Structure formats: structure tokens, C-alpha cells
Amino acid sequence: MTNWTARAIQQRNVGLRIANPTYRLTQNCLRRVPRGLFTALAAIVVLAVLVGLGAADGIERRPIHIWSDGTRMAGDLWLPAGFGEGSDAPAVLLTHGWGGTRDHLNSTYAPKFADAGFVVLTFDYRGWADSHSRLVIIGEQPEPDASGEVTVRARAIREVVDPHDQIRDITSALEYLSGEPGIDRDRIGVWGTSYSGGHVIHVGARDDRVAAIVSQVGYQGVGGWSPEAKRFARQRAIDKARGKIDPIPQGVDQIPNLKGTPDLAKMLDHRPIDQAGEVRAPTLIIDVTEEELFDRMANGRAVYDIIRQNAEAAYKTYPGQHYSIYGRHLAAASSAALEWFQKYLMPR
Fold first, then answer.
1. Does residue 282 lie within any of the structural domains?
2. Which of 12, 145, 159, 337 is the most buried (most CB within 10 A)?
């Protein structure tokens, strides 16, 4: 599933040892992720029948490869019944948060959206699930041969949460989707949840191919960083630049109950809300009323208030905490997103 690390760095009574003994995350520096995640996973299985998640006759799921800054990402392209190169069909790019993978999207949102007539693209970020890893050279880089090739030992970078790299991967997936024959490039929507709920605001603000946006329980970069946590993240960036720690740390600074390594140095200044004023695409913000991971009023609601000054926008809430959006509200929230895309991407 998904999460982010900002306010996670404030919870009391949790200490986390770091591989580099010079530093330690101390009390008041890390928030434990609610165990509601596991309840939500179970609820998805139960609700699958209610949502009507089975693909209708005629829907095709096609495995694809997407190249992002030289690394292959695994993806799936969902094609609605009757789709062909001359279809001129609308499309939706589904993006997961934190270390979420396309398996979850493929079993929930993707078939539902494809059944409604959308081409849908899901993918795994670089270094996650079936996607290839970025590589970091071990030792000195040899001189290239006459063809520009080198043989090296390298470390595979797996399961690192880096918002800048994730945004690059989302953009690469958008580029793949916009090049698919039969797609109407003027009718592409992006959907993001949790950590990528902020990513899609950033991408939608900067890429005019995005014609509609849905941001679900998204962290928009506001709040959650204590002075101690900021100092720690700044020191991480310094130590990376000076070679005191691995250039892309793995297996450190981990958040309890979440998979993957948060790159705190990259996360600190990640604020999608700063780009919200540039969004011109119709945008739906979905939140939960008792959001426990961050202040929804300062994040989702604030982004909505900014976007509605320049574009069509709506703000919708459901009762409950963060992970309830994947459990008891899965059917309602996915339907709200689908209706938004139908309103702004489907022919009238």
C-alpha cells in the first residue's frame, strides 16, 4: 500500500537505529504507521465483489515495458472492449504512493476504469516489484572502450522511496501512454493516492498533457517535519554528497510497518502544494475526515482552495482514517474518481 514519511517523523516513543552509527533517530522523531493497513488489505478482498472489479468481456490486459531514465519499468496496459488504433479513446494513468505496486491497482481500480471505456496504464516504480533497478557502480569507473562500453560491478537499488525519481517515473509512464496508438492525447487523466496524491498535483501543474486529475488522500508537503527531523535530513544530504554514506542509502531510516527506504534528503523539500497554483486541469481532491498521518486541511483542502481559483475543482471527504479509503470506502471513492474522469474526459 502507500504512505509517506513527513509527519511520521514526529511520533513519540519510537527509536530507530541507523546503519551509520554517527546518527540516530530519537524519540519524537518517528511516527508509527497505523496497523489499519492490514485491515484495509483484507477489506479489499471482501469489497472486490461489490465494486465489480472483474474485467468485462472484451477487456485486454497487455504487459508492457516503460523506459525511465535508462531503466526498464514493468507496466500493464488495460484496453477497453472494442479498442483499436483508430479508437481515439480517453486514458487514465494510475500511480501508487510510497512503495505501492501495480498488483494492487490491477486488482482494484484498473479493471473498473477499463470497463467504463478508458485505456488504463499501471506500472511499478524503478526498483520496485517487477521493474528493473537503478545501478550504482562499485569502485572506480573504468575507461569506456571504443564503442563507449564499460564492464563494472554495480549495486542494484531496490525499494527506495524518492519523490523526485517517482515523479520522473510517472512522467515517463505518461509519455508512454500518450504515444499509444488509439489514444486521444487531449483526454488523458492522472490518478494518484497517498504519497503520489501529491505527485499528480506536481505533474498536472507542469505537464499540459494532463486533462484531469484525481488526488486521493494525498500528502502535499505541508507539515510534519520537526526541527530535529529537518536537521537529520539535511545531514543525510550532506553525508551523501561527501561520500560518508552510500549515495543512495538502502535499509536505513525505515518507517515501522512500511516497506522500503525513505530518502529523507530528497523528501524534505518535496512540496507539491507549491505547484498547485499552476494547475489548470479539472481536479478532484479526495480526503478522509480523520486523516491521522497529516493535517488534511493544510494539505488536500489547501490544495483544493488554490486550484479552484484557476480550474474546475471539487473536494470530497469520507469518514474514517487514511487506510479506510482502500477498505470500506474503496467502492465509493473509486466511483467518485471514475465519475470525475467521465465528466471531463468522455465525449458528451
1. yes
2. 337
